[in-house]
Amino acid sequence: MKLYWKQAVSTVMIASSVVLAVSPAFADAAVPVPTVVASPTYSITDMTQAQVKNVLLEKTAGGWRIGSVIKLSNSSGAIVRIPDFELRAKAADGTSYTLQPSAANAKSISPQSNVELSYMTEIDAKNEISLTDLIWVDVNMNVYPKQETVLADAGIGSIVWKGSDAVIDDASLLSWGQSFTLPEITSSLTYSAVSLSTQFTEQKPTYVVQLKVNNSSSFTETVPDFTLSGKASGQSFVGKRVEQKPISVNPGERQYLYYTISTDAGIKPEAFYVLTPESFLKQGQTTPQSYYTGRIGFHLPTEDANIVSLPAYQMGTPITIDAVSQAVNPKLAVSLVRADWYENEGQSYKTVVANLKYMNNSDSPLPIPALGTELVNSSGTAYTGNVLPSTIKEVLPGMGVSVAYAFTMPISEEAESFNFKLQEPQGESGFKASIAQLNVAVQKTVPNDTELNLYPYNVKLNSWALSMVISQNASTKDYNYTYKLKTLMDINTTDNVVTEESNPKLLIELDNPAGERIAFKTLLLSGPDRIMSGNQNIYFTNGSSDQMESPLKLKIYETITTPIGEARRLLSSLTQ
């Protein structure tokens, strides 16, 4: 079967998002780093030693491509030139293949340092090849017949990488979240997988893997160039790191790396492989050939990882933001103050509205963070929150701001608790990384006759009376009936926050004995036209009837304007 590398794009335009599995990005799981056995060192000369970094054996249209990168060290105190030797790959049947040096290879090695040398050959052969050894040979052409001396012989059977056909057996794969280092790379950096999500570009999934990198050394290190691939259905889908600029990790610091891996529609990775890019430049050419090799892979999260074990969140308590994230100013306290179910009248979906509160503890205005949100149920289905439009862009000193998010869900969604995720946008990549997670219970409102709670307001209905206004058509002499509601209300704010004028609002409906709406009135709670405490006369002028109807039912709703229409929550139901 002919297999192909699939190259993922790092810019992902998201149409929708589904959580495949997740482990909290801000959790520090103490998983030991597996022991990595370094490749043996082989003396080539008195001053140079060699190590095999990797070996490639890859099928091509015409046969095979064999490549290798070796690390050559200079243990002396002076510059030495690269020794003259041939590098040969030996097959199981005894055949030797001579690899050519890259035109970009170094010519010398500085004192007490090392260089990486690239070699490659292409073979026009259709038979299967199995490589066993890599041999350094000194060839003396000054004698006849030429004299060959084996300088070193390295067994390579266990490290040969077969390109897109390469498979790491399950027993050798690391567990999800298990720490690892990059083989044959001198570095103190350790890595572990912490989060996996699926995002869609049209109908094709893109898997976003979040790695945590830790620097346990006493000096700053730059993250080496490596990527991840997804292995699925005999195919390899090579990903890209989202961050294109070099990433430096200071001593004792941790950072996150993000990799996007796009697959074909309906294909889910079975494992992720850690790949190192290599290149080879043929003599006389200007464009190098690129390829990948690998040795390490890790499993996907288990299904149980969908259910994140978090304590029940108490509304209004401060949210701990991932220390790595810089999305929220440290002087801004973040909390979730409400999460309620809303209905969408006449529609086949319903809405959850969640209110985030930002409290400014500094002495200067601070911008409102541009955060994303998700609600994830226990089966892993994720619903993306749409931030409601607002003209408020900053939080004043000593004040708070309420930011509302609307989550559209099918009527069939029956979950009572969700994993609420705060997310930080990652540049122009189109995806967001979790910076906090909460176990949130979404509230179902129980109507109350007198106390109406809609954040950040409390409305106390002290008394009410509904009366009919009768008018007569001068021409037809017919009577028309409209209605007036007289109320005594106390309206108070329950929190020191600024809210958008258009959200929330009160909607008062009048229903006849048949349950039909005959009139309604929308009332603002903020702005110059807002309803005030005290006696109110509310006229229902948008509905009239040619007959007297009684008794009428008075329904009071909180309404929120979302991107897909009005969502409402019944606060009180009163009968005349």
Summarize the structure.
With 576 residues, the protein is mainly beta.
Description:
The protein has 576 residues and is an all-beta fold. The chain has four domains: 5-36 and 164-305, Immunoglobulin-like (Sandwich), CATH 2.60.40; 42-158, Immunoglobulin-like; 332-441, Immunoglobulin-like, CATH 2.60.40; 451-575, Sandwich (Immunoglobulin-like). It has no helices and 42 strands. Strands 3, 4, 5, 7, 8, 10, 11, 12 and 13 form a nine-stranded mixed β-sheet that branches. A five-stranded mixed β-sheet has the order 1-18-17-22-23, with no helix packed on it. The radius of gyration is 34 Å and the shape is elongated. The termini are far apart.
List keywords for this structure.
single chain, five-stranded mixed β-sheet, Immunoglobulin-like, mainly beta, disordered N terminus, nine-stranded mixed β-sheet, 4 domains
- The average pLDDT score comes to 89
> Which structural class best describes the helix and strand composition?
mainly beta
CATH architecture of the largest domain: Sandwich
| Multimeric state | single chain
Distance between the termini: 77 Å
Q: Provide the β-strand percentage band.
A: over 45%
In the CATH scheme, the class of the largest domain would be Mainly Beta
| Number of DSSP strand runs | 42
* Largest sheet composition: 9 strands, mixed
Q: State the domain count.
A: 4
List the total number of helices: 0
Radius of gyration: 34 Å
Low-confidence region ranges? 1-31
